[in-house]
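can u pls check wat happens w/ nicotinamide-adenine-dinucleotide
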Amino acid sequence: MTLPIMKNYINGEWVESNGTIMGDVTNPATGKKIAQVAFGTKDDVEKAVQAAREAFLQWRQTPPLTRARYIFRIKDVFEENFEEIAQTLTMENGKIIDEARAEVRRMIENVEHATAATTLMSGYTLEDIATGIDCAGHRQPMGVFAGIVPYNFPAMVPWWFLPYAIVSGNTYVLKPSEQVPMTQTKIFECLDEVGLPDGVVNMVHGSKDVVNAILDHPDIQGVSFVGSTATAKHIYKRCGETGKRVQALGGAKNVVGIMPDANLDAGLPSLVTSFYGVAGQRCLAGSILAPVGNIADKLVDKFLALAKKIKVGDGLSDQTAMGPMAGKIHLDRVLGYIEKGIEEGATLVLDGRDCKVEGYPDGYFVGPTIFDNVTPDMTIAREEIFGPVVCVVRCKTIEDLIQLVNTRDFANAACLYTDSGAAARKFKYEALPSMVGINIGIAAPMSFFPFGGSGNSMFGDIKAHGQEIFHFFTDTKVVIERWF
Ligand code: NAD
């Protein structure tokens, strides 16, 4: 059987890449190849940027309300294709179909928020800054922007940026993750139906060569990146060297603290989802479960009982509660961390290594795993595992918990379960990560609030979506004038 080959979308047309290196796209539940993607080249990027640059002038002059009307049309086409996008996503990424649907919904919420551009990209004015002199700040689009995105949210993450960039009057080049290129291909098929002017949105598939060509291209004004911290640092540095705007969101090691007064019965379902949703492959996933004081034994018992019930399998089946790892390399990495935890002396309470799913002998499955008695200095408590592995670090006091949060190498999110307002206040005031959940296991800001961490989880200052995103995609031109 010949496999479909993912094409680039440049200047309103589907085109083959110049690249000769092919990557395989695999269904992680079956381990079978389902498509191929050509790794694009510098030349592919050049063509996409040229199309975007040529489209810019006319697009910039299109009134913001008219641009917003295109965004409304994008929403309609996405709604019509909602289920097909979600199914494609599960097929290539593995997450369960309900998680895929939730992701597509979050993608659409960004489209909805972007329609507010006529208000959110407005500038401001002040008369008489000196006698007879007026001043105005106009938010102007800047030209071509680019997005480079990870494998774990193939639908949503690109749309944390793209709709805001184009509704502000810029044009765009997207590079999806080479591991999951089918979802954005489906999404760009939808965009093709909308009838945006040619060159306003472009997509180039590929890997490092495409990324580096984007980073070095003199006609790209800014880059939005989401992925691991190692790559985020590379992006940030190289964009600095080439003078681009940049927002680079990196990895995470999120702590979820449980106070002795926490309402466990109410909180447990969301706690379990925090650690095992998307098989732990979320930048907001709980990774360290940190009970404070005497709640620890009760918490571990109850959590273990629920974890044992999780049915692992093909994400397309309605019976499945947790899908596979998104690829063989991810499976191997997680198994490696489980070995490491054992070697370092943590207590393996639930072992997900030998996870067999009937009818799926070649799937990349790992079952829910729990380590108890993890200490803050162990590798599994410091590094991002990005899989369904819970590390229980027992804390004596809330001060110990906050110390644990603030000494991780990342600062993406942190959560606290408690019935105490004072504990909640102390935690949200003192914890360093920029996304905090109180009795919420996944502190995921919606499209109208900013998304992004601090420390090694975020490089740059303007985060994804929220109102601030319009600042990233515009330059404030200040005009000071007087008339004689
Ligand atoms: P990754 O860094 O390996 O890849 C991300 C993108 O960068 C891909 O498009 C890839 O092609 C490109 N890339 C990879 N290595 C590169 C290199 N050496 N040079 C140039 N480009 C390179 O990340 P991933 O494995 O796809 O995604 C998982 C990571 O993303 C996790 O660390 C997760 O925490 C993080 N993530 C963070 C957020 C957030 O909001 N902070 C959201 C989602 C995922």
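The chain has a mean pLDDT of 98.
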